[in-house]
Specification:
This protein has about 375 residues and is α+β, with helices and mostly antiparallel strands. Helix content is about 45%, strand content about 15%.
Amino acid sequence: MSDINQMNPLFFNRTISQILEIFIIPEIKKRIASGKIEVSSLPIEIRQFRTSQKEETDHSYTTVVEINDEVKIILKVKPHKPLKPGMPVTLADINPDECYLKPPEYDGKPAGYFYWFSNFLDSVLMFDLEYNSRDDFAKDLQGKMHFPILDILNARDFIKVVKPLEKYRALSDNNWPPAPGYFSKIMQLMHNDPALISKDTFVDVVSDIYSSEYWKDKLDFWKQTNFFPGRAQYLERAIQAHYHDDFITSTYVLVPQFEGIIADYLRENTEQSPTDFSKMIQALKDLCLSRIILLYPKEVLEVILNYIESGSFWKYSASVRNPKVIINRHGISHGVFTGFECKEISLKYLILLDGLAFILLNDKIASAKL
């Protein structure tokens, strides 16, 4: 019985990837073959899934896979007062600290399961395989997996009210690269103060979120997974330089890496990689959308890659009015800009790396290559 969401990111993400490879993707392929899913509807945006093991009369097990709206979870709660059967239950009626996820049941017997669900960019994996052991042991365990109902309801309200996709577009329109680190604290601040993004203090607000500790965790994960083969030393040098206020080094070391990272990934995953950078972005987008599943909204993929492809990053340097606030590869790689190095522009290139890494991570998970 486990909730691994606070554990090592490598273990967390690889576990999800393996469950997808073993259970979810084969199930979707089976449904495609039977005509239940149209190829034109791919990739399927997965919001939640549950896979469980039904014990048959001969004591063999049949795997049951439920995806998105097929998943109907049941919670075991402790009400403040007795409730009549059939009565609607509100959050005010229960103690949220005593809310538990009940396992799926077949013929009255609880079954072992994996349950994954997402709230925009965040996800939670819960599993309990001990129900497939002795009946008396399973009976004692039933309903003991704590379900974070308050966190989940708050996250859903956040998405409904704050509208994170709109915030990503606002960030992009204001020369801030879209990336997962803004979610959800900075987006909440932007919602509370729509003018915040135009204030001089915004760079400090973002910098507080994108702390050195944030990047330490990222670097540890990238090294463990060999995420950027041959490039970790450059990324680490750029990050260290940024947090030592050496913005010349951080910028000049990091900027050339983007084209190489995307080219490396395409060479690993496609038969032929374009040599033109703008075509590389389209090829990366096509690759991600060629997968059977997506683990986040398609619009997030589009807003991040469109920022790289159509924004200032790849434009001619002559079109850049202020290289201290607007990212641009050409002006730096060809030595056109001088005196532009500062905290804001260095931070923006780091955030752009965070956005690109998010796209690649989810593609690796969806293709079982993490």
